Amino acid sequence: MTIPVTFLPTDKSHNAESILGMMPEGAEAFKGRINQEISVTFDESGVYGIKCLPHYALGMVALIEVGDDLPNLDDAMEVQNPGQAAARMAVLFEQVGQNDAAESDSTDEAGAEEDASN
Questions:
Q1: 39 near 61, Cβ under 8 Å?
Q2: In this structure, are residues 19 and 61 in contact, taking their beta carbons and an 8 Å threshold?
Q3: pLDDT tens digits, residue range 19-41?
Q4: Which pLDDT score is estimated for 56?
């Protein structure tokens, strides 16, 4: 699976860069320059931690989930994030896999409705 993402700085003094220890094996780390957009292709299955370096401790983080197999999830969850980033990452980790569950639930409901009509 390949997912291209472009990070756009909509306000001054922001960037996007990978968080050490929060990338799958074989994935290439990246670091965008302040006030400049950066395009990144995520092509290894797993979770990717992203931060805005100037605002990292303030909780400006993101978590990108690629594929169904997340071999680095446990290691990524062990990374110590500073300040408010720790609480934000905890919330993001709680959401990992929820899109898959929602898709599965909607498929199950559609199948149940079809069975009921027969």
A1: no
A2: yes
A3: 999 999 999 999 999 999 999 99
A4: 98
Torsion (CA) 71, 76, 77, 81 in degrees, nearest 10? -170
59 and 87 Cβ atoms separated by less than 8 Å:
yes
Which of 36, 42, 2, 1 is closest to 18 using CA atoms? Answer: 42
**The pair of three-digit structure tokens given for residue 35, joined into one six-digit string:** 């006030």
Distance CA 115, CA 109 (A): 10
Say how far apart CA 66 and CA 45 lie, in whole Å: 5
pTM score > 0.70 for this model?
yes
Q: CB of 27 within 8 A of CB of 48?
A: yes
Question: What domains appear along the chain, each with residue ranges and CATH number?
Answer: 3-117 (2.60.40.420)
Q: How far are the Cα atoms of 61, 64, 73, 84, 107 from residue 8, in angstroms, in the given order?
A: 14, 16, 26, 22, 34
Q: In this predicted model, what pLDDT tens digit does every residue of 51-60 receive, in sequence order?
A: 999 999 999 9
